[in-house]
Write a structure and sequence with these properties.
Layout: H1 2-10, H2 19-34, H3 39-55, H4 65-97, E1 116-119, H5 125-129, E2 135-138, H6 178-184, H7 191-197, E3 202-206, H8 216-222, E4 240-247, H9 250-264, H10 266-274, E5 280-284, H11 288-303
Parallel strand pairs: 1-2, 3-4, 4-5
Length: 304
């Protein structure tokens, strides 16, 4: 945001800012340079003033709609360019600074087998430490510093916050949405074929995932479905027969349950967890290996 204002400030010839507004921008830029702690508050104040000037007529000013659009296009293009640099910086950091040779390997996955890996991480941690040949998808892309930045597929975005009527019409900031980035960056989706083409009972295990609603469009395919799904959540029909959700602490469990309410709806979640045939089971992480061994034996029974 500071950088965007800096660029506009440097090219201010002919731009209709008042002296007071230019003073506020100078204060923000000055606080950024000198590291003053009140810079964020002043930045928000300047941004609000700036946006008001773009979108509304102010008494005593003759800002045309065309000029507003020009300001807005320049402003959003700078923000998007900075966002792309942020994503690339994250990719470089993860690839250059994570040394798998120095990571301590846990024995929690020893003797444990899975058929397919769906990872929301940017690194190849599970394959490097536990199973190098497992098939899988990098849902949010994989950090690889060696490739050209235009070929990167790292996804870093926000969840949908518009209502049903607006989200398919208002696409001005679609570049910040996860689903959009996954499409244009050609992320992995082979897990969908695994789920839809399987004739066996499928179980999914969630390990280290918060189940945040920002990943709702992926999670609804990996969780079992319920006939009690509300119109609000309306998840698709799933081929998953049972899901095991591992949690590290009581606080983690509480947050996961709250997030699932946002994804599935409370009626469906109650049915899937507390119904006569529970399809979602929460597993304390220390009991993971025991529970997985039991489910592996059940899966062998299904397949014979």
């Amino acid at each position: 945001m500071i950088k965007a204002l800096t660029q506009l400030h440097k090219t201010n010839k002919g731009i209709d800012f008042s002296a007071e507004e230019m003073y506020k921008i100078d204060c923000v830029l000055d606080s950024e340079v000198h590291g003053r702690t009140d810079g964020f508050d002043r930045e928000n104040e300047v941004l609000l003033t700036f946006m008001n000037r773009l979108m509304e007529e102010q008494p005593g000013h003759q800002t045309t709609n065309q000029k507003r659009r020009e300001y807005w296009q320049k402003f959003t293009s700078i923000l998007l360019a900075d966002f792309s640099k942020l994503v690339r910086s994250l990719e470089l950091y993860l690839d250059y600074f994570i040394d798998f040779m120095k990571l301590s390997k846990s024995d929690i996955f020893d003797g444990i087998k899975f058929d397919h890996l769906v990872t929301f991480n940017y690194t190849n941690t599970y394959r490097v430490l536990y199973n190098s040949i497992i098939s899988g998808d990098f849902i949010h892309g994989r950090a690889q510093a060696c490739r050209d930045k235009e070929e990167g597929d790292v996804v870093l975005g926000i969840e949908e916050f518009l209502d049903e009527d607006q989200k398919n019409k208002d696409v001005e900031f679609i570049a910040y949405r996860k689903y959009y980035q996954r499409i244009i960056k050609h992320c992995d989706f082979s897990y969908r074929k695994v789920l839809e083409n399987s004739n066996n009972a499928i179980s999914t295990w969630f390990f280290g995932h918060s189940l945040a609603s920002s990943d709702k469009d992926i999670l609804t395919h990996l969780l079992p479905s319920s006939d009690l799904a509300s119109q609000f959540s309306s998840p698709p029909k799933s081929n998953v027969k049972k899901s095991y959700i591992c949690y590290y602490s009581q606080h983690t469990l509480e947050q996961q349950v709250a997030n699932l309410v946002q994804i599935l709806g409370q009626e469906a979640l109650n049915d899937l967890v507390c119904g006569p045939d529970p399809k979602i089971k929460f597993v304390f992480q220390d009991n993971f290996k025991k529970e997985r061994m039991i489910s592996m034996n059940e899966e062998r029974t299904y397949r014979t």
